[in-house]
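Example 468.
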Amino acid sequence: MCEAAKKIEKILGEESVSFDEEDLETHGFSEWSTSNTAQRPVAVVSPRSTEEVSMIAKICHEYNVPMIPFGAGSSVEGNFTAPFSGISIDISRMDQVIALRENDMDVTVQAGVNWVTLNETIEQHGLFLPLDPSPTARIGGMIATNCSGTNALRYGTMKDWVVNLTVVLADGSVIKTRRRPRKTSAGYNLNSLFTGSEGTLGIITEATLKLATIPTHFSVATAAFPTVRDAAAAASNMIRNGIPLAALELMDEVQMKVINQNGGAGGRTWEEAPTLFLKFSGTSDGVQDNITRAQAAVNTHRGSKFQVATTKEAMKSLWAARKEALWAMLAIRPEGTQIWSTDVAVPLSHLAEIIELSKKESGRLGLFSSVLGHVGDGNFHQAVMYNPNIPEEKDAVAHCVDDMMVRALKMDGTVSGEHGIGLGKKACLEKELGVNTINVMRALKRSLDPRWLMNPGKIFDEEETPAA
Ligand SMILES: Cc1cc2nc3c(=O)[nH]c(=O)nc-3n(C[C@H](O)[C@H](O)[C@H](O)COP(=O)(O)OP(=O)(O)OC[C@H]3O[C@@H](n4cnc5c(N)ncnc54)[C@H](O)[C@@H]3O)c2cc1C
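Predicted structure in complex with flavin-adenine dinucleotide:
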């Protein structure tokens, strides 16, 4: 492996290859993840172009070295850990916007572009990419995890924004999945194959993405509810009645309490009750009409304290609690504990039931546990704080998380609404899809990467190990 890295260094130069312990650590271990392994990559390589990625892959292929694509490292299921060591291919220096085509409403970027930077760059043209995972995330990682976020209710997930991809395969060959029209029925939909493939099929080096028009008017509202079931029922009501919300998020009473403990986001003290956060966007009349309809749904389901913001400042203040949720939780985390954050998604009609059952079960752990959800999509996250050095505690949380997965599957849901499978949810994937479907995935993988070198050990079981 080191020989391969040295060969890459010889061609790309010293500044493009790192053997630094700290770099290896940040590229092989994640504080956000509960699924780390003890191994680390032997080197981190930082290419600048598709050609350089291709050259790296050819060398790794020649030496049978595992390749682990790396974006910003914000994924949470051990997606970029290196269980067989190998070389981490960090695409963060591939950060060029190649072409913005305002009239076609699309943009071609290198895979290392960060989505926040991209949106700041194209804002002046009235356009934006409506995905919002971690603010650090990069386009390649976002495509590889089929990410989403609070905007998914209105705009869908990453897969809906991919027009075409340039991908370097395990042997270093380069393919382009499509050309640039909005629709095509020419051949297999390879965009969908690589979107969500978590770096196991190839390295995405460039992408053409659709863009959305920035709406002219916005508003934000919040409402408190006596129970999570009421809040979830109000959310379902709004969706079922076709209120075109831009976002619909839920935080439970524990999460709201944390916000207050952390100083009360947006300069206010919040009701410590299950709370819905709503975003509206569109024309002025449309936004007003949607607010009226949303308020009626809130009232029908015992909601109260319906607050609406119209100025930019007030919107920021009302949305602040949702925005700061994770950081508030990190701030109160007792020393030595970790957060086990997991997500599932279910058909909307099952949302209230699964949140209630999951809260009840995690409540029995006697540990801090809270719920936060992109409930408009039937997707919610549960976070439990535990001490990783107490094996019984860790086992109890693992058991609780596993039960939540099983519960979601019983409701025809999925074990991962937006975080992917990585290492953390491999066992659950077979339960979700069945062995025949997994075998089709394995066959696809084998045909593109016969030596099993691309991000090995992920998504599927550990039967297959890299030739090295
Ligand atoms: C604070 C915080 C908030 C978050 N909120 C959300 C959210 O709301 N919604 C959501 O969906 N996720 C969320 N996430 C998870 C995370 O941000 C997403 O999974 C994101 O898409 C990962 O992007 P990344 O660039 O960090 O990828 P990485 O973590 O670096 O990599 C993720 C996976 O993609 C692969 N990969 C990376 N780059 C490439 C490439 N160029 N080609 C092929 N494979 C590649 C890696 O091998 C790995 O398997 C959040 C995470 C944090 C820490």
